[in-house]
Structure formats: structure tokens, C-alpha cells
Amino acid sequence: MKADEINSKLLNLEGVNGAEEEQLTLWINLLLNSERELRERLVRLHFLLLKVKCLLQPQILNLDIGFLLELAQMEQWVELNQDHVQNELRVLASEVRKHERDYTPDFLLSSSPT
Predict the structure, then answer these.
(1) CB neighbours of residue 71 within 10 Å
(2) What radius of gyration do the chain's Cα atoms show?
(3) N or C: which end of the chain has fewer CB within 10 A?
């Protein structure tokens, strides 16, 4: 992700003295942890929204392609950040994957490998 690339470049602290480097490192780590937590909350909320929609309206579930692409990106983010995300989010992501056929349009399922 673009934000991760930018943040990792910030950690290269050439030309900064010891005390400034330590303080800057603390702030950068705070920023990284805050961003990770916000992303995790967003992904969890998105997954929960999908789960509720599937439970309440399975027969009229109408998701656009944009939503499905976002969902795929969020599933990928969870997989890439397995070491950092809470177990609850990993479980929720696996539940969403189990019901993927419930909310994926038929024309996409026929072209995807099984």
C-alpha cells in the first residue's frame, strides 16, 4: 500500500542526531500503529456490514463491482497483516470467504477458477 511505502521511507533518518532520531522514531511508530488500527477497524466494519446484509436480505443482496473489489482488497490486507491483526478480524475474514458465493454475481463465479 502506498501509505506503508511512504511511512517506511520516513524511518530512514539520515542526518538526524540521537535525541531527535529517538523522538522522531517514537512519533513515526505511533503514526504507523494508529494507521494500522484504523485500517483494521475499517476492514472489520466492512466485513460486518456484509455479514449483516447477507443475514437480513440474502435473496435481494445487490452488491456492485466496486464493493466486491474493496472486499477483495480488504481480504488481501488481512492476509498480508496476519501478524498484526486481532484474531477476531481473521475469523471474520474467513467467515466472509465462506459465504463468498452468496454475494458474488453468477457471471463472476463462472469465470473464476475453483
Answers:
(1) 21
(2) 19
(3) C
